[in-house]
Description:
- The structure is a single chain.
- The longest helix has 19 residues, at 73-91.
- The protein is mainly α.
- The mean pLDDT is 82.
- It has one domain (13-91).
- The relative contact order is 0.15.
- It has 4 helices and no strands.
Amino acid sequence: MKQKSNLPYKYHPYISEYMYSVESGEIRSCKEQKQLMALVRKTLDDPNVYIDAKAIEDSVKIPEPYFPFKLYAWQRFLMLAYMELDIKIMTV
Length: 92
């Protein structure tokens, strides 16, 4: 799946790509995945939330030369959750 440039979301492209795929029906998804998209949107729309685009890009790009395959859209989307969890652990 190629990254789309004209997505109707204002988030990082890795986040927007997967959200669009789930919500548009481009990929098959369950009720819980659709609920997750609503939760992610609500969370990311909070004006106090900062998306560290460089950290997300680095988490995908730095290991990329060492593997003979590319990550799927859902795997790139998970970088947001991993980064968010890491920040919460560090700030507790």
